[in-house]
Automatic annotation (TrEMBL):
This is Dipeptidyl peptidase 3. It comes from Gouania willdenowi. The keyword DNA-binding does not apply. GO terms for cellular component: cytoplasm. Binds 1 zinc ion per subunit.
Length: 673
């Protein structure tokens, strides 16, 4: 029996993110500013094709050549499954963290016939055949190693050459730390020279030059793309609204030209100072979710327009932050010395280039800037609107009485959770650091570790960061911490009031928020691979961990009951005792969240790993057989809904089932390979 999680159904939905009215209201100057930033983002976004799986770039170029010659409507009349593949290839730019192949009804031979029948193939048979031959086998391959991202025999990645192991990644990280180089914009390639391993660290930059040693650092990775990114950022400067924007773009341009993370950090400082712009943007090598080692950033660029009404609510949450932060369960010494009030705006996305689009963002990810200079939060309003709409479809694993309430209050509860997750989740907590001069940012003679009851005995040194220390678990661990902050503080009536929830409505929003997290933890099992005992999605792993914490506490708070569905097949029913959320549930999250923060603050990698990996374990579920539950989740998976909800992306106009997004600039993409 074929595992359905790897196959793409023909009825995958497409959701448009509406930004037409927001864009119409921009001035001509603001439109040009957004235009050049969008071009920079889309050109840089093509680097993602080279960051994840070997076949991604070739699939993309193959499809681009076909679609330049024929419209999606002309192609769809020949094959719905082909249209579905092309839509998901454009939207999911690289194959996702899990390998996804076409519906079984479109065999490799049928797809080959469709490709060869295309006008592009007829006009350039040699080039098109070379493209097809380079990716056709890999499109359909479900060999064990090719099913997911990973290092060595755990999976595939193009952040590292295929001969790199976890030990190589650790060695390279030590080298980068010793040279005070960030891994965010790098890839690592290993070769043998006279029986000795030599490593090449490639920096993403327009310039191409390097230095030689056992470790060589070479500029020029994605050079043609970075050159176009830098060029469009330079053109955007002419339309900047203020000096902060202009200097921000100058530094970003320098970063992508030289491969300098320090320049990007400097640009991020100007970005933080650019308060409440009409056109908001950010660009760079940002999130490390898809690096198997957890240190390298995937290229991401977005351009968006402020939604003033919703932004007002987030501004009120920011104003209340200094009152809410002391409510969190860790001691005051473990919180930032000063809360630097950030911008928190609701945005309608105009452009989002990368492998996926979240509901909210807290950036920059540079710990030293976040701790001492600040950050920004954004909530992506038109993405949330799409997420709400998908809830009208059939819900799995909920009691019938819960379904209507879930549909009614999912939107408002998600607003609250996203706001708390981004502002007070990612925006809270202190890292204890001893800098290169031996200076501490905390009193090491007085600060007590609340877990050990002893003086704090570990901390970050010099250029060490959260990502470089906690590596493979850093992303998911941090998402779990932020999700826990959202659950914990959503019980606060002041928070609920800020978002317009009072009385019974406030209680219902709390219930649905917690219910959504429990259900998310169960659905997260789809993103676990038993063969490699690994998780393929950071947020889903985080929600599963929270589910296990709530199940462990017992007392009837959360239940997972295995039942038989009306179709005679296995099913699951989730129960959540709403009367115990504010007592049993709150106490459980209080204890767990405090541990998460303490291990993070003190750079206690061993303690943090033991805690987080323990709760991430699927094979040892105590009274629950999570592997059997996973099989039921896969059985009951609503393929269309899961793809729309988990992979909502920026779309262009809806052209039948094919998403032809506007990032296809490209006199250039044909030369990508």
């Amino acid at each position: 029996m074929v595992d359905s999680q790897y196959y793409l159904p023909n009825d995958v939905g497409i959701s448009a993110l509406d930004c037409s009215e927001a864009f119409r209201l921009l001035s001509p100057r603001e439109k040009m500013y957004a235009h050049y930033l969008s071009r920079a983002a889309w050109y840089g976004g093509l680097a993602v094709l080279l960051q994840t799986s070997p076949e991604s770039a070739n699939i993309f170029v193959l499809l681009q050549r076909i679609f330049r010659k024929q419209t999606p409507a002309q192609l769809e009349k020949d094959a719905t499954a082909f249209s579905c593949l092309s839509g998901c290839s454009h939207v999911n730019i690289p194959n996702s963290v899990t390998k996804v192949v076409i519906n079984l009804h479109l065999s490799r031979y049928k797809l080959e016939a469709l490709v060869k029948a295309s006008q592009a193939f007829q006009e350039q048979p040699t080039e098109m055949k070379a493209l097809w031959d380079s990716c056709s086998c890999l499109i359909y391959s479900l060999e064990k190693r090719q099913k997911q991202l990973g290092l060595g025999d755990k999976g595939i990645t193009t952040y590292f050459s295929g001969n790199c192991s976890l030990e190589d990644a650790e060695l390279a990280q030590k080298f980068l730390d010793s040279k005070k180089l960030s891994a965010y914009n790098t890839r690592l390639f290993k070769r043998e020279n006279g029986g000795k391993a030599c490593y090449e660290v490639r920096l993403a930059s327009a310039e191409q030059k390097g230095q030689n040693c056992k470790f060589s650092v070479k500029r020029g990775d994605y050079s043609p793309l970075m050159e176009k990114v830098a060029s469009n950022l330079q053109q955007a400067q002419a339309f900047a609204a203020n000096e902060n924007q202009r200097k921000m773009l100058e530094e970003y341009q320098r970063s992508f030209t030289l491969g300098s993370i320090e320049a990007h950090k400097e640009g991020s400082r100007y970005w933080i100072k650019d308060k409440s712009p009409i056109v908001e943007s950010y660009i760079g090598f940002i999130e490390s979710y898809r690096d198997p080692f957890g240190s390298r950033g995937e290229f991401e660029g977005f351009v968006a327009i402020v939604n003033k009404a919703m932004s007002e609510r987030f501004a009120n949450l920011v104003s209340s932050a200094e009152v809410l932060l002391p409510e969190l369960p860790w001691p005051q010494d473990f919180e930032k010395d000063t809360f630097l009030k950030p911008d928190f705006t609701s945005l309608d996305v105009l452009t989002f280039a990368g492998s996926g689009i979240p509901a909210g963002i807290n950036i920059p990810n540079y710990d030293d800037i976040r701790q001492s200079e600040g950050f920004k939060n954004v909530s992506l309003g038109n993405v949330l609107a799409v997420a709400y709409a998908t809830q009208k479809e059939k819900l799995t694993f909920l009691e019938e009485d819960d379904k209507d309430m879930f549909i009614q209050w999912k939107g408002p509860s998600f607003d609250v959770q996203v706001g708390l997750h981004e502002l007070l989740g990612h925006g809270s907590g202190k890292l204890f650091v001893q800098d290169d001069n031996g200076e501490f940012n905390f009193d090491q003679t007085k600060v007590i570790n609340p877990e050990s009851k002893q003086l704090v005995s570990s901390w970050y040194h010099g250029s060490e960061t959260w990502d470089s220390k906690f590596t493979t678990i850093a992303s998911s661990y941090e998402e779990c911490r932020a999700e826990c902050v959202g659950l914990y503080l959503c019980l606060n009536k002041q928070v609920l009031s800020i978002f317009g929830n009072e009385g019974q409505q406030a209680d219902d929003v709390i219930y649905v928020n917690w219910l959504s997290m429990v259900r998310g933890g169960l659905l997260g099992l789809e993103f676990y691979t038993p063969e490699s005992q690994s998780w393929r999605q950071a947020h889903m792993q985080a929600r599963f961990v929270i589910l296990r914490v709530l199940l462990e506490v017992g007392e009837g708070l959360v239940g997972l009951k295995e039942v038989t569905g009306q179709d005679g097949k296995p099913d699951i029913r989730i129960t959540l005792d709403r009367s115990k959320i504010s007592t049993v549930g709150k106490d459980a999250i209080h204890r767990f969240l405090c541990k998460l923060q303490v291990f993070k603050s003190t750079a206690d990698v061993a303690g943090g790993r033991a805690l987080y990996e323990g709760y991430s374990t699927v094979s040892d579920g105590g009274s629950h057989d999570f592997l059997r539950l996973r099989e039921t989740v896969l059985l009951r998976k609503e393929a269309r809904k899961m793809f729309v909800q988990a992979n909502t992306k920026i779309k262009g106009e809806r052209l039948n089932r094919v998403t032809m997004v506007t990032f296809v600039t490209a006199e250039f993409t044909v030369d990508l390979i």
